[in-house]
Amino acid sequence: MSKRRRPEPKLTGRDPNEAHEKKLLDFIRSKQGTGATMYELKADKTIPPTMFTRLVNSLKKKNLIKDIPTMTNKGHKHFLAVEFEPDKELTGGEWYTDGTLDVSKIEDLKAKCVMILERHRHRVVTLDVMCTYFVKEEKLSEEQTKEILKNLVLDNLIIEVKSTGMNEFASTRIGEVCYRLAGKKSGNGEARGGAFASIPCGACPHIGLCSPGGAISPTTCVYFQKWLDF
Question: Domain of life here (predicted)?
Answer without folding.
Answer: Eukaryota
